[in-house]
Each structure stands twice: as C-alpha cells, then as structure tokens.
Amino acid sequence: MSHYDAERFDNLYNSSAYASNTNNWEDSVSRYRAEAFYTALTKANIVSAIQTVIDVGCGSGGVLHQLHVNYGAKIGSGNVIYSGIDPSSEAIETAKRLYPNSHHNNITYDCRHLMDNAGGEKYSVLSLIHVLEHCPDMLEMLRLCESQADYIYLNIPIEVNVYYTLRPNVLAMQYQKYGHVHFFSESFIKAWIANNGYEIIARVYSADFEVNKSGFLYNVLKIVRRTLGFVIGEKLTAWLVGGYSLGLLIRPGR
Fold it and tell me: CA nearest 250: which of 43, 66, 31?
C-alpha cells in the first residue's frame, strides 16, 4: 500500500509529533483552504450540484468545518453531507476535540483509509488538501480517488520556489518535520495531471501565509507576499517567495 508514506506514518502522523510540528494539524490555516475550495467549486459551476463531500486526510477537520460554517448555505441544497477521514487516530481525536458538535452540521470524522470505501458510495467531490505531497505513489492515490468521486480537488504547497532554493535545508526539513516526499512547482503538477489523463477544470490559490504566527521574519514575509500577490499575481508570487498553495479541481479526461 504505497499511496501514503508508510515509512513515516506510525512515528509521525499517528503520534503527537505531527500535531506539535504543525500546531494542531494546521487547523488555523483551514479558513483559507476552505475559501479556495469553495472558489474552485464556484469557478467550475458545480457548487449547486454538490451533495456529498469527503475530505481525505482531513487532519484536524478544520476545512470541512470552515466550509460548512462559511459557505454551507451556498453549496448544494444547503444540506450537504460532509465526511472527513484520516488514517491517523491522533488527527481524528483532534478533530473531534476541536469540533465536538460537528454531527449537528452533517459532518463526521472517522479514522479509516480511503480504500475502506472501495466499491461503496461515490461522492460528489473528494478533496486531497495538503495530502498528495505525502503519497509515495501519487498516481495510485488519484486512481483510488477517481473510483470514489465525480470530481477531485487538490490543494498542494508550491515548495519549488526561489526563496526556498536560497535556503538549502528547507526541503529536507519539509520531509523530516512534515513527511513531504514530493515537491511541486505549478507547471510540473499541471503537466503531470494532464499527462496522466485528468482534466483541470478550475485553478485557484489559498493564501496560507495569512495565518497568524509569531516571528519578525514571518510577518515581514507576510507583507511581502500580500503586496506581491496584489501587484504581480499569485502565481508569480508563489514562484518567488512561496506562501501560497495551489488548488486544482480535476476530473478524469473526457
């Protein structure tokens, strides 16, 4: 089973280490990733047709919570069923602790693998938000997702950028602390998706850098990223100084 990083799973994702490294599984950035997710659905003109959403590798569950709270009335009939799954018991325990009343909002969080649903329910849209970079076999993962959803939404960090290149230990740290085994530029991931038979139907960015963090350098970079994003656009800003994640709504080619 190579669609997730088995080498690092037990001692990183299924322990308190990842929560510590990411500040509760990056829950604070969920607002921006949920906004990008909703924008992609809107751009593709499918937002009114959504009935079920499954967030695979949901971590602490914040994206589904933010999606429902901020956009739930605009998605589908306003009564969409949201499912968050993660193979890490640590992640699901965190989600249930942070959002104890989620079931009242038609949101469930379960500790299981996507393959556990093979041959079962097919979802309107399946999201992989900061997940693909953890999967040794990315194509195997997409094929599994394809069998279980009409649309797949990817949100990935753009870590091949000028700023990270000038800091030679960054990518090694992304592997050691977060378990990333792939590193993307926008042009690469778009070419890879197209060459493997998928159609990109919406492209968005999430401004992950807007999350509040301490540190002088981080906050200076926040201003730089925000300003550059406005002046030269998100794509060039991500390539120069990072901070953005790329969101792509895809489906099997027709």
Answer: 43
